[in-house]
Each structure stands twice: as C-alpha cells, then as structure tokens.
Write a structure and sequence with these properties.
Length: 189
C-alpha cells in the first residue's frame, strides 16, 4: 500500500536558499537560459550592425556632399560651345530654302486662280522671294488675250504690279499660240 500512496503524491521542492541571482539561475530551465543568451547575442549583433550602417551612411553622405559640390562647381562654369563654321554656300542654300517655304503660296495661288481666264494656259511659276516677284509663263491664243490677262493681274488686290517681260509666237505649234512671261510683284504680309 505504501507504493500506491506514493504514486498519487506530488514531489515537493524545498529550497532554503536566500533569494538572489544564484538561486534564480539554479531554478531557471536550461531552455530559458539558452533563449536568454540568444537574445543577448542578437541584441549585441543588432547594435554592431546599426553602428556599421551608421558609419556607411556617414561615408555615403560625405560622398554625396562632395558630388553635389562638384556638380555646383561644374554648373557655374561657363560651357564652352565649339563654334562651327558654316560654309557660305550652305548658309545661302538653307536661307533660300527657308524663303521658299515662307512664300505665301496659298495667297499667290488664289490671286492667280481669280485672275486667270479659261483662254490663258499657265505653263510655269517661278517665285523670287527676295524681290517678291513671281514670274508667270503662260500661253494665249491672241495678243489681246495676253494684254487683257496682264491688265487683270494688275487689278488683283494681292499683287502690287504686273509687267509683260517677253513674248513670242510658237511657230512649231499648228495653232501658233503666243507664249509670254509676266513678272508679278506681290504685296508683303
């Protein structure tokens, strides 16, 4: 019976040691001690890592300040622009092309369309933007049609004047039309 009684009783720990760190360590479970030690090691590792990161940050901040100072110095310095000489022929060609593009083509076309009757055939238009002159090459059946066309061109609002420059009869053509050239001066915009 003694055996049966023992199995139902709990073991009781009696400890007469005074409270302190030794008693706490002795009563501490080994797993808790290992966890505490791991925690302390993690704290030390974290502190060491933070100090290393702070040092790297200080180094990068110093590098950034040096780069910004260099950038400011470079931006203040005048930039040397190499001068390239443009050949005069190229400059003239570019200016001529720009003048051709800036011609008042729509106004010229509208004024010519309004002035040109059905009995006049336009053959060529040669603008000279520098002089604001348009050379019109055309054909007419009679000299009266030719002179009348020049008069109508003079009366156009967009043109400031028109002058017959030359004329000739096309002998090779069986209808023998008169081919003529008129210089028309247009008004500036």
């Amino acid at each position: 019976m003694k055996m049966g009684m023992r199995s139902g009783l709990k073991a009781m720990r009696i400890d007469f040691a005074p409270p302190g760190w030794r008693r706490t360590l002795h009563r501490l479970h080994p797993a808790m001690a290992a966890a505490g030690l791991a925690g302390v090691l993690l704290c030390v590792l974290g502190a060491w890592t933070m100090m290393d990161l702070a040092e790297q940050r200080a180094i990068r901040t110093a590098q950034l300040e040096r780069l910004e100072a260099r950038q400011r110095a470079l931006s203040k310095a005048p930039k040397a622009v190499p001068e390239t000489a443009i050949p005069e022929a190229q400059a003239t060609a570019v200016n001529t092309a720009i003048m051709q593009l800036n011609l008042p083509w729509r106004e010229l076309e509208d004024a010519l369309a309004a002035a040109t009757p059905a009995n006049i055939g336009l053959l060529a238009l040669e603008p000279d933007p520098r002089k604001r002159v348009l050379k019109v090459t055309a054909e007419a059946k009679t000299s009266d049609d030719m002179v009348g066309y020049v008069q109508v061109l003079k009366q156009q609002e967009f043109f400031s004047g028109a002058a017959l420059v030359r004329h000739e009869i096309e002998e090779q053509d069986p209808n023998k039309p008169i081919r003529f050239q008129v210089e028309v001066q247009w008004r500036g915009r």
